Hints:
Elements: E1 6-9, E2 12-15, H1 22-30, H2 35-41, H3 47-59, H4 61-80
Antiparallel strand pairs: 1-2
Amino acid sequence: MAGDYIEKRSMGYYVIGTGIPIDMIVYAFLNGDSPEPIRQSFPALTLDEVYGGMAFYLGHRDEIEASMEIDQEKLETLLQS
Length: 81
């Protein structure tokens, strides 16, 4: 199951056992990358974890995109400081 690969932390959603946020998988996926190139970009991930991240995003799109918006706002605030 996709939920077996993703966990919610205080800073957002991450691939379990890694420091890789699901945002990174989602951005690559939305840019048209297939799972294999995404996996090559993140050698710490298995192909199953990439697929799990994509499936989790598709099943929880509103929640993940809301989290990604918050992260983008935090980034913009930091850059303006």
